[in-house]
Write a structure and sequence with these properties.
With about 60 residues, the protein is mainly α. The chain has helices at about 15-20, 30-50, 55-64. The N and C termini lie far apart (about 75 Å).
């Protein structure tokens, strides 16, 4: 038995444009970007401290 195609229901053009307006490229929030920078800084400092134990912290930072 073949399927009978029904006519499509007309959509509200105002609501449709609102749905389309929210699309686009998704970016990280400022908060997420700051958290990532802080995390990278902590990793760098931790790595430097582990590598140069016993040396002055100022001397370690001057290398980077």
């Amino acid at each position: 038995m073949p399927k009978v195609n029904k006519a499509h229901k007309k959509r509200n053009p105002v609501a449709l444009s609102a749905i389309l307006r929210k699309g686009g490229v998704h970016e990280k929030s400022r908060k997420a970007k700051r958290q990532k920078q802080k995390s990278e800084l902590r990793k760098t400092i931790s790595k430097a401290m582990a590598t140069y134990r016993g040396h002055s912290f100022v001397w370690v930072l001057s290398i980077y």
